[in-house]
Amino acid sequence: MLHTAPSLAPLVFITGASSGLGQAMALQYYRAGYRLALVARRVDAIQDWASSQGLDAQRWQSYAADVSHTDSIVQAGQQCLQQQGVPDVVIANAGISIGMDTRERTDLDVMTQLLATNNVGLAATFHPFIDGMVQRGSGALVGIASVAGIRGLPGHGAYCASKAAVIAYCESLRGELRGSGVRVVTLLPGYIDTPLTRQNRYSMPFLMTAEAFAQRAVASIARGDSYRVIPWQMGIVAKLLRALPNGLYDKVLAGRPRKHRQGQQTSQ
User: Fold this and answer.
1) Contact 149, 104 (CB under 8 A)
2) Residue 159 a catalytic site member
3) Are 126 and 187 in contact (CB under 8 A)?
4) In the chain, which end has fewer C-beta atoms inside a 10 angstrom radius, N or C?
């Protein structure tokens, strides 16, 4: 039997909660009075962070899972249902970003890894909770996409494709759940200051902190937005780029530094 816990504080389930945006959003929700269900491959990192933040042990639970393995993340969701109940908000935040060169055979494996994590992993994150949310008649499923999903960038083929797929998938799911009381929210971060983005070899306009993103993201989810670019300035930039004819767009990006391929990033 699922633990529904009607008298408890609302619950948020967040993947990729061991660092970056996941931790920042978790802290925002904790401060708003939520209970936390935090998912990552390394739960010790979550535990260290929770301890450093002084989180009440009664208000959070960690689950070890690798979102690139469907059974792993589905099992984590099922454990959450049994131990904490049906979440009010599920945020599929876990994702990876690696450059690729289609001429390189090994980079096809990189693309497979990206799609398994950023796309199948996102759907598998939502899967355990949909029936419970529909039966309850409420809830929010949040997919973290990217402005990189709006138009392709040289050297970013796998990442851009995966984030474009997140946008399309969430739009499809939103239509499927229309009238059920379950909302589907698509968030598109621009450039966020994290250890990985600091290695980027190109300019990052409107760069914002993970904490600033988390504040706006939580507010957007609470408002019931179905689609939101954060920060809004990047939304304007993305729309302008989308409107450019292909020939002009290609010229604009000519010579732009490319994202690090696998093995080129420095270790964290």
Assistant:
1) no
2) yes
3) no
4) N
Indicate which CATH number applies to the domain containing 50: 3.40.50.720
Q: How confident is the model over 202-219, as a mean pLDDT?
A: 87
In a domain, 63, yes or no: yes
- pLDDT, position 201: 57
Q: Which of 29, 159, 169, 191 is catalytic?
A: 159
| 84: three-class secondary structure by DSSP | coil
Per the structure, how many domains does the chain have? 1
Q: Residues 15, 68, 260, 159: what is their CA dihedral angle, to the nearest 10 degrees?
A: -80
Write out the residue range of the structural domain in which residue 130 sits.
11-253
pLDDT > 50? residue 267: no
Q: Which two tokens stand for residue 43?
A: 């739960």
A 10 A CB-CB count for 25 gives 29
CA distance 127 to 131: 8
Tell whether 2 is covered by a domain. Answer: no
AA identity, residue 85: G
